[in-house]
Each structure stands twice: as structure tokens, then as C-alpha cells.
Amino acid sequence: MNETDGRRQRGERARAQVLEHATAIASTDGLEGLTIGRVATDAGVGKGNIQVLFGDKETLQLATLDAGVVHYRAKVVEPALALESPLARLRALTDGWFDYVASGASPGGCFVCAASYEYRARPGPIQDRVRGHRESVRARFRETITAAKAAGELRADVDVDQLVFEIESFRSNANVAFLMGDMAVFERARRSTQARIDAALA
Amino acid sequence: MNETDGRRQRGERARAQVLEHATAIASTDGLEGLTIGRVATDAGVGKGNIQVLFGDKETLQLATLDAGVVHYRAKVVEPALALESPLARLRALTDGWFDYVASGASPGGCFVCAASYEYRARPGPIQDRVRGHRESVRARFRETITAAKAAGELRADVDVDQLVFEIESFRSNANVAFLMGDMAVFERARRSTQARIDAALA
To answer: In what residue span(s) does the HTH tetR-type domain sit (chains A, B) (predicted)?
Structure first.
């Protein structure tokens, strides 16, 4: 390994370490809770290093939002999409979200939901990024449900947009319920999601 | 009017004026965006006056949260509850929420929803108050649906908790959609709520 590669590897490790602390802070205190000073203290690195690795605060916030999404994708989305049957993918995508939130992997609940609220009145790159993540979640559900219809696993007359909307709605309610410690509503949301999919079975 | 009454009236007017500015700030920037200095500047009163009227920051935040709820109650809940038929009350409570949010009366969307996120990881009096407001919304729906069943307007076999959960879920999704400018999803949530109630008609 030459010197440049070694430097790059060290940089990537440092970046990953900083982002782990940054996502933990942002999960409970929001992306606005991220300051270069606080992240530096928590991650045990110098403020100058954070600036070298991430530039300004907004770049750090965007990288943290993306890191949260990447973590969720690795734990839930990628294993789900590796399944052969579109219906199995749909079940894994929906149930996996409940398992992920319940596991406390993200103590502040769904990162994209929280950021939607946090940036509700602050147009700019972070709000745009949040909107992009929301749209890709929705597109993934649409594709999976459409594929399950094409495979004859879901009925041909299932209204794709309505089913996506209902899955999203139950998730949205479940997330707030989780944050408020209302696990009965959280589990009702999980059951209701499964019931909606069951009702759409071919 | 004696001197004490005059002072009390002036105090109440000043309080109302401050709370109007405080709810406007909190609607978009959250209850944590409220500082005594900022509210004083926006309301055009001295910081000392705010402290006399509200005490500390947390008391101001609690009063602001309550003022948002009181405004919504006056505009939506009270007119709805004045209707004679429980079904008409249910329709006014559900549709009224969509009208209220769409009107921009609260530019940051549902106040209680936003505060649920903001205080997700901060136990204390504000989180407790948020939980209390959420519980009273739910209790109101339960009572109204139960009354509509008793009046023979909704079917006797309607699952009250499930219907309340679905109304809440669509509202939760609609609120984020509104914040993200996604009015197609917002209107789908309104139609879906009406459809759920229609499906429960006796």
C-alpha cells in the first residue's frame, strides 16, 4: 500500500468514526443539534480534523443524514431487496422498518421523518435531500408492489398509490408512537400494515 | 373598573399579544426556537415584561404550546362539538383538521405533531404536556365514534380503536406531506379519512 492509499484509508476510517457519533447526536437532538465542536468532543477528534474531513456544518449535516439512511439501507433495505419474491420483499421492507425502530438502532426513531419536521420551514439543501430520500422510499414501495402484482402475488386491481400511502401513514403514526413510548399503537401499526398487505393478496 | 381589574386586563392583553408572536415563531422554528429575547423583539415588548408575564423559558414554552392548542380548539374542535349528530361531529373534527392545516393558520403544520418530534428525547414537563394533548385528541375521537355507534349512525361492529388509529395515521402522514409541499398526498389523506368513515356507516 502506498502512502496516498494509506492516507485515504485513515481518512475514511476517521470519517466513519465521526459519522457514527454525529448520527447518534442527530438521532435524538436533530441535525441542528450538530455543531462541529460537539461532534469533535464526542468523537474524540480535533475540531480542525472535522473541518478537514467535512468542510462546513451543512456538509457535515448532509453527510450525517446520508449516513443514517445508509445504515438503514444496509440493515433493512438491502437484505429485503435480495429476496426473490416481490411479496417477500414487500413484507421484509415493511416489517423490517418496525424491527429497526423497535431495536433502538436509531433512538430518535425514523431519521427522515424527524428531519422532515426539523426542516419544515427551512428551504435549502437539507430539505431538498430529505425530500429526495422520502421520494426514493416511495418509489421503492411502488416498484415492489407493482412487481408483486405482475408476479400474481398481489391482486391485479390493487391501487398501488393507495397501498403505498397507507403503509407510509401507519409508519408515520408508529414513529411518533414509538417516540412517545406508546408501544400499543406501534404494534397496532405493524399489525395494520400486515393486514393491508394480506387484504391485497391474490 | 378598579385599578386591580385594569392591571389584570392590561396583563391579559399583553399575554395574548406575546403568545400570538410566540406561537408564530414556534410553529416554524419549534418550541426550542423560543427565547425570551426573540419573543420580546417580535412582540415589541421588553424582555423584563416577558419575564414578569411568563417567568422562565419553559413556562413560556408550555404557555405557547397550550395557546396553539387553544387556537385549534376554538377554530375546529368547539364548532364541531356543537353539532348535534355524533357523525356530523366526527366529520367536522376530521375534515376541520385538514382545512385548518391547509389554511396556513399554523405554517409549521400540526403543533402537537411537531412538538412530539422536538421533545422525542427530552423527558420533562413539555414532553408530558405533549403526551397529554395527544391523549385528549384520541379520547375525543373515541367518545365521538362511540356516540355515533350508539346513535346508530355508525355500525355496531366498528372497531373504535382501529378507526381512531387510522384517522390519526392519515393525519400524521398528511402533516408531513403538507410540510414537504406534497399536496397530492395531503388530499389523498383527506379522501382516505372520509372513505374510512363512509365504510363504517350503518
So the answer is: 12-72
Q: Which CATH architecture has domain A3-199?
A: Orthogonal Bundle (1.10)
Each residue's pLDDT tens digit, A87-114: 999 999 999 999 999 998 888 888 888 8
**Spans of all domains in chain B:** 3-199
Q: How many CB atoms lie within 10 A of CB B137?
A: 21
Alpha-carbon span B189 to A22, nearest angstrom: 34
Q: What is the per-residue DSSP string for B86-154?
A: HHHHHHHHHHHHHHHHHTTSSTTS-HHHHHHHHTTT--SHHHHHHHHHHHHHHHHHHHHHHHHHHTTSB
What is the grid cell recorded at A98? 418496525
Contact A94, A85 (CB under 8 A): no
Structure-block grid coordinates of residue A201: 393478496
For residues B199 and A178, what is the distance between their CA atoms, to the nearest angstrom?
Answer: 29
- List the 148-187 stretch of A: residues with Cβ below 8 A of B: 161-162, 165-166, 168-170, 172-173, 176, 179-180, 185
Percentage of residues in chain A having pLDDT higher than 70 = 100
Chain B touched by A192 (CB under 8 Å) = yes
Spell out the SS3 assignment of B55-82.
CCHHHHHHHHHHHHHHHHHHHHHHHHHC
The C-alpha atoms of residue A142 and residue B178 are separated, in whole angstroms, by 21
- Give the number of A-B residue pairs with CB atoms closer than 8 Å: 90
The pLDDT value given to residue B126: 95
Q: What is the ipTM of this complex?
A: 0.90
Alpha-carbon torsion (B19, B25, B28, B30), positive or negative = negative
Of B168, B142, B117, B95, nearest to A192 (Cα)? Answer: B168
Q: Which residues pair with B201 in a beta bridge?
A: B154
Give the residue ranges of chain B where pLDDT is below 50.
none
- The minimal CB distance from A185 to the residues B121, B165, B179 is found for B165
- Cβ atoms B178, A158 nearer than 8 A: no
